[in-house]
Structure formats: structure tokens, C-alpha cells
Design goal:
The protein is mainly β. It has strands spanning 17-21, 30-33, 36-46, 55-62, 68-74, 78-82, 90-94, 100-103. The N and C termini lie far apart (53 Å). The model has no long low-confidence stretch (mean pLDDT 86).
């Protein structure tokens, strides 16, 4: 090995999502649908059939664009749930130079 080899290092940061079973998703909660973070607007389950397990139908709106996504999966399947932190600010002032002052 030579003395000038550099190796890339990863950070010890946390994940942006955590796994959860599809059967544990609730209406007005959050989950990843088709790879997009969504707020769940509709949730329903179908009973297990003759040749399969119970299915969960999850419908949600993208939290950034508002686009609607739908996904059907077994209730025992893992679905990624994004870690969402919501912070509300109060607008204190909008300056002449279009800078916004906020109050936490």
C-alpha cells in the first residue's frame, strides 16, 4: 500500500426514515409512498383471502408538492416512515430588502 491513499469515510448521522409495518400506519400519520414522503389521507385494509395475507391500501399526499400517491402492500410488510419535525414560526417583519424576521 502506498502512503498517499485516501479512503472515503461515512458519517455517523442518523437515517431519515425508520421502518414500520404497513398495518401500523395510521390516518394523518406519515409514510414513504413510491419513494416520496407523504401524509396519509386514507387507510384501509382488506381481509385475508384464500391465497394470501391481509392487504393495506395507503393513500397520501406528498408533503412538499401535494401530489397524491397510493400503495398496496401486505399488512406485515415493512414501510419506511420519514422522521418529520414541524416547527411553526411567527412572522415579525418583512423588510424593504425582502428579508423576513421570524420569531420562534
Amino acid at each position: 500500500m502506498s502512503d498517499n491513499e485516501d479512503f472515503l469515510q461515512g458519517d455517523a448521522g442518523s437515517s431519515d426514515t425508520v421502518p414500520s409495518q404497513a398495518g401500523a400506519i395510521k390516518k394523518n400519520g406519515y409514510c414513504m409512498l413510491k419513494g416520496f414522503p407523504c401524509k396519509v389521507t386514507e387507510y384501509s385494509t382488506a381481509k385475508p383471502g384464500k391465497h394470501g395475507s391481509a392487504k393495506a391500501t395507503i393513500v397520501g399526499n406528498d408533503i412538499f408538492t401535494g401530489k397524491r400517491y397510493e400503495e398496496v402492500s401486505p399488512t406485515s410488510a415493512n414501510i419506511q416512515v420519514p422522521i418529520v419535525t414541524k416547527i411553526e414560526y411567527e412572522v415579525a417583519d418583512i423588510g424593504d430588502d425582502e428579508f423576513v424576521s421570524l420569531i420562534l
